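Note to self: user wants both folds in one dump. Writing first protein now.
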Amino acid sequence: MSSILIIDDERPIRSAMRDILEYEKYKVDEAEDGAIGIEKVAANKYDLVLCDIKMPKKDGLEVLTHILENHPDVPVVMISGHGTIETAVDAIKQGAFDYIAKPLDLNRLLITVRNALDKGVLVEETNKLRKKVNQNKLTDIVGESAGIQEVKNMINKVAATDARVLITGGNGTGKELVARSLHQNSSRKNAPFIEVNCAAIPSELIESELFGHEKGAFTSAVKQRKGKFEQAEGGTLFLDEIGDMSASAQAKVLRALQENKITRVGGEKEIKVNVRILAATNKDLIQEIKDNNFREDLYHRLSVILIHVPSLNERKDDIPILADYFLQKICDENGMPKKEFTKDGLKALQDINWTGNIRELRNLVERLLILSDQQIDAVTVNKYANPK
């Protein structure tokens, strides 16, 4: 049931609106002036506020300003007399949802209330989705081990600069999380963060993906397309698994880093770009250079700062913290009651050889949460750790 607050100094107006809205099954509260209205908004959760413009103590515009600043998700509909229509229109420009003129029209009131409440529902759903998206892109690095503290210290030192960073570590260790943390703690945080998985794109398409292409550059190029460098303008371009990049793409990336310019595939015009480059790999690039698989000059361009992310086996002291973190996160995302690890259950997790690192741990925690009873003990961990 939606909750509505009516703020108006005229008792007959309040009573008339209360009768109409309660008949429509809304929960209604009243305030006889702006000051009391502000107190009630602060103390209660309302889905909608109907507010008169001319009132003693605090007028409707003061109430509107307070609600917009402190409760921006609550829609406000202004109630205006004949002499305050212009003021009501100004209120809409300031952020009010709509206005209703006196004398009140029943149909107009109900339509406006329904529309305002629908807007409130959409705002709430949008906030929930935004929160969920942000949860899926968490930039908090969980852990207190010496290895992970070193990673955090490096991020704190480097993030504010535009220095290129090469992030190394095994699959599933959290290299992308480090890259996102660097971006979120930089002056570029409000600009795009664009990720390219170099291992997932065929070598014949990687140049088009990075630099874009002109119409007709190749058979399927039916229109001009901007590449990732241009999409990341002003922000950060994260080249994941850069050790798998083709030799020709490496040469073009090197040129882009040297000159801060790119040329689209099939084009001749040079395009200036302003992006910060972060790269990551699970390969030993020094060995790849010796094997002639990776350009040494590109390596030195990328590795101004080196950050190595330790494997989970190298930071087993963090497993209890990580397990509890994933347990809470998965429960929150799926609306599940939280379960607990016993001490021997956590010890069993620490005894596992984690070849898949953090990603493998998260998957196991989710599996245990779904399949176990209230407590997750060592027997349960060992049972589901390596399912056949």
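First done. Writing the second protein, which came from a different request thread.
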Amino acid sequence: MTGLTGSGSSSSTSSSGRGTAAAAAALPEDLRSPSYAIATANAVMFLACALVPLLPASAVLLNHKAPQIWQLLTSSFAHPSLESVMQCVFFTYVFGRVVERNHGVWTTWAVYIACGATAAALAWWLIPAKAGLLTSAAPAAAWGLFLVGVGIPRLAKKPLEVACLAPFAFAATTGRYAHASAALLTDGTAVGHLVHVVGAGLAAALASCVIHVVEGILEARERKRLEEKRQPASNSSVQ
């Protein structure tokens, strides 16, 4: 009786585990995809700032006059205009899906947040407080997804594809920072609109290196595991 009970308990546990996994797999793609989740977070943040009086945009965008540490994160999901959020949602969907398919869910989130936060941090450091700007790091975060998903990995294999997409993505990204152009001058040239893009680019380059190294290590471990699995089989066949 005890054996039967234990067997039944084990069977029910494994069945519930399979049921949970099946339920997770049965979720709509929108609920499983980080690209959709990031795009939704951008839209929700914009609506919240527009509809909730106690949540002004100056609290979540990067306020260069009085910056707050949390704005390094929130500015990656906040937008000053409807046009900005629509454009960011489009780029996040297109390029985020590429990162998601090639590298997985958590990598997509990590790349988006790292590129956005780095862009905001560089802007905080370089753009003076007297500029009195409110900036969003979301376009720069989307630019980071483009670099990690398309720009860097396909540059050697498909340079024509990158050459076609990069100017469009770059122009759209820098266009979001046109108001920040005169905030920083170098030899008389307005370069304020490039600060966020450079920050996201540096983070994307580092993220690509880390992804390459980590995936190389995981592939090597998997090859070693498969080789060790084959050895007992080959030894038994020889005997």
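Dump finished. Worth passing along: The longest strand covers residues 62-63.
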